[in-house]
Write a structure and sequence with these properties.
7 helices; nine-stranded mixed beta sheet; alpha+beta; four-stranded antiparallel beta sheet; 24% helix
């Protein structure tokens, strides 16, 4: 079978592009005369001195906010506490003051300690490129748990503080309250995802691109679940479409004695003012003094002026219990209680050491004391002087 000859004088040239998918082919026929005409027309316009290229303006440039990658859209995702900022945007969040009535900010820990219902403020400042519109920007403030295993769980209010709250029903579910004139409460009480969480939105000043946000907290950290007591405030810079362009996080702890809790976290190795090893000895000496005061009688004067012979009570001496060593495995709520229990045991055994007369019995009791002390010293209590509302569990 012969192949028909190709006419070189044909006015059209057929270019065949082969594609791998399905052995398909695409044939595009280009009219050479039409193409040449357009090229010559474009060259004439470029060479013409009266031809000008239209200048680009704010209206002709497409809005860059629509080019935000979909990966930065928080819809349908859990909140994140990681700091983030787009390359074209600058955003800073700082407390307006390091301390005030009911709060204090630790520069060492980068953490805010405050009491419930105390008002603290944050300064939010942003910088946007010149092509960006300054309208429709706002800051969302949300309280989240910093524990990775509980970031998917929303933080809800406790029944105790909720019953005393006199705010409107749609505001009661929010732990974080805003005192700004312009603000908006969003989210639901049990919303799992970012757009469903309880938060407050505050618009940015379109001229200065900054805002001072005044906040209050209506529950303590101990009101939340045990795995949610490490909390942080997440500030997100968002546009009118809800896309996140910056994220900043500030650690917060809502407690009663905020100054003492800050000192304990800044100095985790601070020990008790009184050495625990001397507590047992001092308690033992106190037992001796109490014993002497309890067992010594007054010396009655006789008619002849002589002192009567001192009568010593022997019924107050208790024989030490039969020594039957045993191993006890007890689970305590926290390390502080476990250490305190060991101190009590040392004091009780020390009392029997002072009362025992047999040297062998004393030696055996002292071995038990030394064993308990060694076990107690192995317990490291980093926050042993925290207030009752501290997260010791």
């Amino acid at each position: 079978m012969s192949t028909p000859p190709i006419d070189d004088g044909d006015d059209t040239i057929a270019d065949e592009d082969m594609f791998a998918a399905g052995n398909a082919s695409q044939i595009s026929i280009i009219n050479s005369e039409v193409l040449a005409t357009h090229i010559l027309q474009f060259a004439d316009e470029v060479n013409d001195d009266n031809f000008t290229i239209p200048a680009l303006s704010q209206e002709t440039i497409p809005d860059l906010k629509f080019s935000l990658p979909s990966s930065l859209n928080p819809a349908g995702k859990y909140p994140s506490s990681d700091d983030f900022c787009h390359d074209d945007v600058a955003c800073t969040v700082l407390p307006s003051s390091t301390q005030g009535s009911g709060f204090i900010y630790s520069q060492q820990l980068q953490k805010l300690f405050l009491k419930t219902e105390s008002t603290c403020s944050f300064d939010v400042k942003c910088e946007l490129p010149g092509l960006f519109s300054t309208q429709g920007w706002y800051v969302r403030v949300m309280l989240v748990s910093l524990a990775p295993e509980s970031q998917h769980e929303p933080i809800v209010r406790c029944h105790n503080h909720l019953a005393k709250d006199t705010a409107p029903e749609h505001v009661k579910k929010h732990v974080v309250r805003c005192r700004n004139v312009r603000h908006e409460y969003v989210g639901t009480g049990n919303g799992p995802f970012f757009e469903d969480r309880c938060a407050v939105r505050v618009p940015l000043d379109p001229e200065e691109l900054c805002v001072n946000i005044m906040l209050q907290f209506m529950c303590q950290n101990t009101c939340f679940r045990a795995n949610q007591r490490r909390t942080g405030l997440v500030f997100t810079l968002e546009n009118d479409q809800g896309h996140i362009w910056a994220r900043r996080m500030v650690q917060v702890k809502i407690c009663i004695n905020y100054r003492r809790d800050m000192q304990n976290e800044e100095n985790p190795n601070r020990t008790h003012s009184t050495n625990t090893s001397s507590i047992a000895g001092s308690s033992g000496n106190g037992s001796v003094r109490r014993y002497k005061a309890r067992n010594q009688r007054r010396r009655p004067q006789t008619s002849t002026g002589r002192v009567a012979q001192q009568v010593i009570r022997t019924d107050s001496f208790h024989c030490p219990p039969n020594l039957e060593p045993c191993l006890v495995d007890i689970e305590m709520p926290n390390m502080r209680m476990a250490k305190r229990l060991m101190d009590i045991a040392i004091g009780m055994i020390s009392t029997h050491v002072l009362r025992a007369e047999d040297p062998e019995t004393k030696a055996q009791l002292m071995e038990h004391i030394a064993n308990i002390r060694s076990k107690r010293d192995m317990l490291v209590v980093c926050n042993s002087q925290c207030s009752v509302d501290s997260d010791l569990l």
